[in-house]
């Protein structure tokens, strides 16, 4: 369970901010969100403005419990209910047909809506005190690294956010898994905190999962989750040599050092030892990227973990951190 520092007074205050059309930084088990009243188009519009996010890029509606699903979505298939029952509260987002309560501003004009119940006591307390749905993208500027502490939110958004609830560091560390549940057979649109293996165990049949590089969610861009430093991906056995080569060329290199090479002590500006456990790696990932930026690195050399379990979501975020930036 995450360390909880927000008080009941804080939560009441944050619920008041939402009612007044303001924006709240809120902790979830995945990353911090930038929340607004889902039914207030002006507040939703402010999210896009503060994030610098294109209005065609749809948001997730956070709700307090699976029993509220039919308030927000229509024609919910049995498979979606099964997944909601198993994984909510938790890092799973279901894309369903949009119900009339959801303004088109929140869905980027789509007739579908993304919904999830976050597994964080502060988020759940806020949703309960507020009573409605809260649209919340990750609380970072568009394209940059998602925040996993309240300090990240304050540092990145400052006064643009009316109130930040501090719920401690996010436990999971990568965003929710987004599943398109509108059809007969669900499919993964974005890998995340719930693994494909866990979803398939509940469904009893395999999901079609596109290769991570092919995953397309409306409004997504090749470069996302990007630190200021350029990210270069190489094979694990080449990480040390590539880091030293770039350092010798005058770069300030940050290295994600795989544990198999933990003894190598590469000549680089900063070294992050990559945890063996994918749970620990996901938990730390965005913080590692931020830390290397903070330490003034201009180039980060990393490799991809095996793309199974949580490794699939980690590899997806690393690929996109390394993606071409001109299109953003
Ligand atoms: O863990 C998370 O999901 C975090 C926390 C705050 O809940 N939120 C998050 O939101 O990652 P954001 O806005 O950074 O990413 C939401 C993703 C976007 O890539 C968007 O394209 C997709 O959800 N999405 C939203 N509505 C959709 C829809 N109707 N159809 C397909 N994709 C959708
Ligand atoms: Mg995001």
**CATH fold node name of the largest domain:** DHBP synthase
Distinct small molecules: threonylcarbamoyladenylate, magnesium ion
Radius of gyration: 19 Å
The CATH C-level class name of the largest domain: Alpha Beta
Q: Judging from the principal axes of the Cα atoms, what is the shape? A: globular
Average pLDDT value? 93
- Going by CATH, the homologous superfamily of the largest domain would be DHBP synthase
Largest sheet: 10 strands, mixed
How much helicity do the residues have? 25-40%
Molecular structure report:
- It is a single chain.
- The protein has 328 residues and is of the alpha/beta class.
- The protein folds into 2 domains: 8-214, DHBP synthase (Alpha-Beta Complex); 230-321, Rossmann fold.
- 32% of the residues lie in helices and 16% in strands.
- It contains 11 helices and 14 strands.
- Strands 1, 2, 3, 4, 5, 6, 7, 8, 9 and 10 form a 10-stranded mixed beta sheet that branches.
- A hairpin with a 6-residue loop joins strand 9 (177-180) and strand 10 (187-190).
- The chain is globular, with a radius of gyration of 19 Å.
- The mean pLDDT is 93.
- Magnesium ion (MG) binds at residues 137-138, 146.
Question: Which secondary structure elements does this structure contain, and how are they paired or packed?
Answer:
Elements: H1 8-19, E1 24-26, E2 33-37, H2 41-51, E3 60-62, H3 69-72, E4 73-74, H4 78-87, E5 92-98, H5 104-107, E6 112-116, H6 121-130, E7 134-135, H7 150-157, E8 163-164, E9 177-180, E10 187-190, H8 196-203, E11 230-233, H9 239-248, E12 253-257, E13 270-273, H10 278-294, E14 299-302, H11 311-321
Parallel strand pairs: 1-8, 3-6, 5-9, 11-14, 12-13, 12-14
Antiparallel strand pairs: 1-2, 2-7, 3-7, 4-5, 5-6, 9-10
Helix pairs in contact: 1-6
The chain binds threonylcarbamoyladenylate (TXA) and magnesium ion (MG).
Magnesium ion binds at residues 137-138, 146.
GO molecular function, one term: L-threonylcarbamoyladenylate synthase
Family: Belongs to the SUA5 family.
Function: Required for the formation of a threonylcarbamoyl group on adenosine at position 37 (t(6)A37) in tRNAs that read codons beginning with adenine.
């Amino acid at each position: 369970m995450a360390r909880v520092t927000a008080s009941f007074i804080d939560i009441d205050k944050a619920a008041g901010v939402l009612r007044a059309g303001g924006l709240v930084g809120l902790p979830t088990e995945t990353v911090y969100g930038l929340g607004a009243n889902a039914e207030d188009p002006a507040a939703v519009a402010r999210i896009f403005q503060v994030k610098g996010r294109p209005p065609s890029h749809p948001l997730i509606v956070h709700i307090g419990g699976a029993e509220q699903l039919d308030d927000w979505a229509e024609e919910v298939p049995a498979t979606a209910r099964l997944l909601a029952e198993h994984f909510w509260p938790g890092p799973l987002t279901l894309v369903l047909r949009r119900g009339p309560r959801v303004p088109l501003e929140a869905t980027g004009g789509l007739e579908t809506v993304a919904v999830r119940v976050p597994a964080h006591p502060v988020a759940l307390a806020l949703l309960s005190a507020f009573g409605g749905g809260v649209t919340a993208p990750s609380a970072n500027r568009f394209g940059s690294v998602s925040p996993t502490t309240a300090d990240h939110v304050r540092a990145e958004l400052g006064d643009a956010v009316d109130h930040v609830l501090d719920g401690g560091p996010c436990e999971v560390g990568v965003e929710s898994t987004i599943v398109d549940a509108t059809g007969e057979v669900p499919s993964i649109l974005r890998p995340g905190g719930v693994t494909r293996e866990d979803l398939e165990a509940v469904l009893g049949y395999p999901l079609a999962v596109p290769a991570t590089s092919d995953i397309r969610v409306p409004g997504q861009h090749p470069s996302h989750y990007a630190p200021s430093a350029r990210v270069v991906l190489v094979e694990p056995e080449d990480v040390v040599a590539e880091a030293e080569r770039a350092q010798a060329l005058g770069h300030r290199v940050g290295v994600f050092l795989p544990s198999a090479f933990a003894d190598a002590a590469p000549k680089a500006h900063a070294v992050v030892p990559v945890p063996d456990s994918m749970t620990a790696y996901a938990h730390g990932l965005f913080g590692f990227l931020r830390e290397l930026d903070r330490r003034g690195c201009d180039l980060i050399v990393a490799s991809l973990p095996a793309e199974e379990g949580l490794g699939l979501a980690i590899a997806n975020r690393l690929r996109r951190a390394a993606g071409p930036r001109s299109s953003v």
